[in-house]
Amino acid sequence: MAYNHEFDRIEEKYDPLFTEREASVEPLPAGQSMKQSFDTFYAFVQEQIDGLPHKLKQKAKREIILAAEEQFGKVLQQKRARREQRKSRLIAHEQEAKKAKDQAAKKKPEQAAALKRSPA
Fold first, then answer.
1. Integer Cα distance of 63 and 32 in angstroms
2. Is pLDDT of 15 > 70?
3. Same domain, 117 and 68
4. What angle do CA 3, 85, 10 make, to 5 degrees?
């Protein structure tokens, strides 16, 4: 699945958190799937680790795991914040719709009464 830049434009328009994020990925090369891209990256990292002495291999693996956990935590926090924002926007929208519906319901009896009073 290729990186969708159109989604960024849509998200940028509706999501104020979008502008606070830094670009963390580059677009995928043409004809390359996300899995192929990950496999290439993983193979590169594995080659780099394999070339290290044993002590440094262990340290490098720990550092990679810590960095991945930190990044994953940030992603989860961003998703949680966006979910909460969407939820609050949805609740506000539902409240506005209910208010408009209630106002329309109040106007209908008034309009019916006005029609009865007006000469035909």
1. 28
2. no
3. yes
4. 35
Q: By C-alpha distance, which of 70, 46, 73, 39 is closest to 60?
A: 46
Largest CA distance in the chain: 98
**pLDDT band at 25; cut points 50, 70, 90:** low
Question: What is the H or E stretch that residue 11 is in?
Answer: helix 5-14
The verdict on 32 and 63 lying in the same domain is: no
| pLDDT tens digits, 75-100 | 888 888 999 999 999 999 999 988 88
Scan for tokens 């290439």, then name that residue: 40
Domain with 21, as residue range(s), is 1-51
Give the residue-averaged pLDDT of 9-37. 61
The pLDDT value recorded for residue 95 is 92
The whole-model pTM stands at 0.41
Which residue type, as a one-letter code, is found at position 44?
Answer: F
Instruction: Give the separation between CA 32 and CA 110, rounded to whole angstroms.
Output: 64
Q: Given 30, 51, 72, which residue is the final one in a domain?
A: 51
Nearest to 2, CA basis, from 31, 22, 23: 31
